[in-house]
Amino acid sequence: MSTGLIIALIVIVAVLVAVAAVVTLRARGPRHGTSLKRRFGPEYDRAVARHDGDTKAAERELADRVERHGSLHERELEPAERQRFEARWTAAQERFVESPRDALAEADRLLADLAGARGFPDGGHYEEQLAALSVHHAHHVDGYRRVHRVAQAHANGAADGGAGTEEMREAMVEARALFDDLLRPSRHDGGRHRTAPDGEHGTRPARGSHMPSLLHRRQTKES
After folding, report:
1. Which is deepest, 133, 140, 205, 218, by most CB within 10 Å?
2. What SS3 state is found at 183?
3. Please, are residues 219 and 100 in contact by the beta-carbon 8 Å criterion?
4. What is the three-class DSSP state of 124?
């Protein structure tokens, strides 16, 4: 075989390898994006909006969250811990009638404490805790974001953080969904806490987890 033919074959092989690499990268891109969108749900759309429609930038951010927090193992709660958290949430809900802003502030603290108890970053590092929660509880994490926003505005002296009573009610309801999600046993708990199938997550809400009618009524009085 002549030297020229050998060189030609090497060039052809190199070109084929380069083409294959490009095709592989292009094929991985959409699948990677689809995987992130499926995992993060509404958080994916929020990330895209935050990056002004730049899906690649949003996906880099979400992929970074998975890299940092995807291996987090949620600690199971003891029955006494569950009861204490349930009691605190019930008290916060009841307080909403007279003082919605104080109720949201308590819900904010409660979610931070509960997430910390489950093994997420400490509530003192809110952004990192929120990022970790978005990886494992993406469909409910926005409730925490909403109550935290109002609670921080209230703590800084703003009357209500720009939120009316109805908006605060909706935030409290959304936050309750994350609370329930964090309170239930993880799937890998080995059956230590038995639950029956019911709804999206395959578990029944925790005892006492029903939302009082006061938070479903649009006539909740202003405080």
Report:
1. 133
2. helix
3. no
4. coil
Predicted confidence band at 34 (pLDDT cuts at 50, 70, 90)?
A: confident
Query: What is the per-residue DSSP string for 56-97?
Result: HHHHHHHHHHHHHHTT--PPPPPHHHHHHHHHHHHHHHHHTT
Q: Between the CA of residue 134 and those of 42, 43, 58, 104, 137, what are the distances in Å?
A: 10, 7, 14, 20, 5
DSSP 198: -
Q: How many CB atoms lie within 10 A of CB 123?
A: 20
Helix%, strand%, coil% for the chain, nearest 5: 65, 0, 35
Cα angle value 93/182/140 (rounded, 5°): 80
Closest CA to 183 of 114, 119, 129: 114
How far apart CA 39 and CA 58 sit, in angstroms, is: 13
pLDDT tens digits for 40-97?
999 999 999 999 999 999 999 999 999 999 999 999 999 999 999 999 999 999 999 9
Axis crossing angle, helix 141-155 with helix 165-183, rounded to the nearest 10 = 130
State yes or no: pLDDT of 200 exceeds 70: no
Tell me the residue type at 35. S
Q: For residue 29, is pLDDT > 70?
A: no
d(CA 185, CA 190): 10
Look-up: residue for tokens 């309750």?
176
How far is 132 from 141, CA to CA, in rounded Å? 10
Cβ–Cβ < 8 Å for 187, 81: no
